[in-house]
Amino acid sequence: MAAQSATKPGANPVTAAWRSLSKPVFLPALAIIVAALAFATWYGSAYGADAQSAFTELRDGIGRTIGWWYVLLVTVFVVFAFWVACSRAGAIRLGRDDERPVFSRFAWFAMLFSAGMGIGLVFWGVAEPLTHMMSPPEIAGVEPGSAEAGRFAIGAALFHWGLHAWAIYAVVGLGLAYMSFRRGRPLSIRWLLEPVFGRKLIESWVGHAIDVFAIVGTVFGVATSLGQGVLQMQAGLAHLGWFQPSKGLLLVLVVIVTVAGTISVVTGLDKGVRRLSNANMSLAALLAIAVLLIGPTAFLFQSFVQNSGEYLQTLPKLALVTGAGADDGWTLGWTLFNQAWFLSWAPFVGMFIARISRGRTIREFIFGVMLAPTLIAVVWFTVFGSTGILEQLKNGSMVGEGGSVDTNTTLFTLFEQLTGGSGMAVVLSVVALLVITLFFVTSSDSCALVIDVLSHGGSTETPRTTRVFWAVMIGVAGALLLLAGGEAALTVLQVSSIASAAPLSVVYALAVVSMVRMFRHEIAIMPRFVRVHPKASPTALVSAAREKVRGEDARSEDTRSEDSPGEEDLERDLRALLRAWHDGEGAGTAGETGGAGRTGGSEGAATRRRPVAAPDGTPSPAPTPTAVLDQSAGAFAPPAAPAAVDASPDRPVRVLTVLDVPAYATTVDTATGAVEWDETAMPGDPIEGEVFDTPEFASSAAGVEERTARLLRVAAAGDGPAD
Hints:
Blueprint: H1 13-20, H2 23-47, H3 49-86, H4 105-116, H5 118-124, H6 127-134, H7 147-161, H8 163-182, H9 194-197, H10 199-202, H11 205-239, H12 247-267, H13 269-294, H14 297-318, H15 330-355, H16 362-395, H17 410-419, H18 423-455, H19 464-525, E1 528-532, H20 538-555, H21 567-592, E2 628-630, E3 635-637, E4 654-658, E5 666-668, E6 675-677, H22 695-698, H23 701-717
Antiparallel strand pairs: 1-4, 2-3, 5-6
Helix pairs in contact: 2-3, 2-11, 2-19, 3-8, 3-15, 3-16, 3-19, 4-13, 4-18, 5-18, 6-7, 6-16, 7-8, 7-14, 7-16, 8-15, 8-16, 11-12, 11-15, 11-18, 11-19, 12-13, 12-18, 12-19, 13-18, 14-16, 15-18, 15-19, 16-17, 17-18, 18-19, 20-21
């Protein structure tokens, strides 16, 4: 059960925060983080380059051993996500059925993109395509440094940052949003597996271990990214000639990011994080537009279309490539590393996306989380990656000797080459540094919010004290790694984060199984609302009257010579048809209801109208079975008959509730031949009957249903109002 964060007025905030924590999760996670930081700092400082080489080899060993599992799992995530979005499960709302999204689409997209991988695109937007072009894999079959290698490089970069990356976040975020907002579970990774293991095991040490792994992997991943980002910021300032690289500069940069992140996390999700994300996306868009206009504009528009096609060709080509039999190490160093990295970040990004997606449908969630960021990635790699590749192909000014690529400075080098080293290059570099800083701030504050939720057992209302603690912890971790151990210490922590992805990947696979079971049940009980109109359209009525007149003319001895029926006959039969329809509705109302708004003694059944002959003896078509809901009687009943003939199409519309029943859930009564429904054959609810005394459950769809059922039971028993 989620820890309760409510505190008494006037209580000591530190004491109240300590009491609100989930100790079986917080204490082990904190101990592992402190121990790992101490080891990484000492080992990186003591052994330097040797430590970096040793842990790089360990990282590669992890990739060679279980990398195939990562590749297979992530591809399954892509297929699963699109299957859910395109199925009937896509209509399920992540929350109550009457809920609507909390954030606008722009704010929602800005926050999920900033937290997910905005900083990665800024860091690798120029460097990764150049690296792939200068050192393509064997599977590409292209000459290094050629134009063909450049086209492959863009497709490969998009493969790493497109659908596959966001499918990981989408699956984890979808499971968390569904289990919390729809079913009322605490917002925690462990509850993804309740449909498989049950509540008892999830609330035991197994669930605690899952959340501990999620916290540790998240802190390690964000701390490592913070360190790498600060190194890039320092390289950019040094490239501009403003500062010389030093430990003091690194410390100042870490403090700036940490303080800004702490302020943002204190102000909360709706104010600090949302506003920073909106500002960051606006600045990033401004930077991309500036490069688009200053750079080869026409070439970039052409490249956007071409790069989209290159990505679509690369997607199936690399989807299941594991590097088996290859000697270049490209798959190991890029595809497997990136996917393991995203898997380790999934608890953080997935939970954050879930928190900001309440009220959206599953279809909107999947398409928004997967397609929109992928489209932005295509635009970003086109503007920055294609520009860098073109500059290298024309002038050879983007890479060093032997095809080496300086990942920290390639972005700033591109600005210099585009503007000829003018003041515009400085302006673009300053904007880029600001974008990098804001992306790290949004990642830091989002991470602190998510870790705090996990350390409180899934409670979304947490004290400010613990949020500040985690924001400061991330900054301290990044500073220690950079100042004491340098890049070697970052490599140590990076390997630890990737290693934590192995057990988490098993959790995600089981989460897919859980969601399949839950969605099968949701689809089985999902009603379809059918709108039934009580008469044909005006065009159909006129056509029927015209055909009737033609039939009478064909049987008449005095057949008309005109091709079309006479207008007088047409108007006569049309009036008769309308009168017959209205009389039929009135007869059905008078003869088939018991005067109390019920239909033939069977609640919820459709009312059949008896056909009534028109005044001229022509039989009227049998009306369509229709019904409307009588709110007072709680049953379906026909509307009152109209007082006069009305040819208007705006008649009252009937809405029927239809539940689909599969053939295997039906039985046939051998005595009467009637088809009956076997409710026990339908997919059951794997977590039915579980109730939580938490705010999350009370505000969820499951909580509303539970209260509704209780009220109905009390009302039916006649015991007065429920508590």
